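Need a sequence for this fold. Nothing fancy.
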């Protein structure tokens, strides 16, 4: 069934990839990782004994890597000046006062 329905999505060329059940597992693992699910939970869900096996599935995608790089950008000479989203803890006066008291 996967072969029949996935045939139209199979790509050919230097980065060809066949649609297979393993591709579904890998994709699901990447989406779970990107959604913040801990790798140990993914390991259990996939039925792996070792985290080493899971780590092969749960590679960060290019999109996640690009987002991480974007979060590190600073303004200035040719570098993006897109403002970073404000994080909630920076608005917590009680927490900030406590941190300043340390």
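Here you go.
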């Amino acid at each position: 069934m996967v072969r029949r329905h996935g045939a139209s999505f199979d790509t050919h060329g230097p980065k060809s990839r066949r649609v297979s059940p393993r591709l579904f597992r890998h994709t699901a693992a990447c989406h779970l990782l990107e959604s913040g699910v801990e790798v140990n939970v993914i390991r259990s869900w996939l039925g792996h004994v070792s985290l080493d096996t899971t780590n092969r599935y749960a590679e960060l995608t290019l999109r996640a890597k690009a987002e991480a790089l974007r979060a590190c950008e600073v303004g200035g000479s040719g570098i993006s000046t897109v403002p970073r989203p404000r994080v909630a803890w920076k608005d917590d006066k009680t927490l900030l006062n406590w941190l300043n008291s340390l």
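For context: The CA atoms of residues 8 and 98 lie 58 Å apart.
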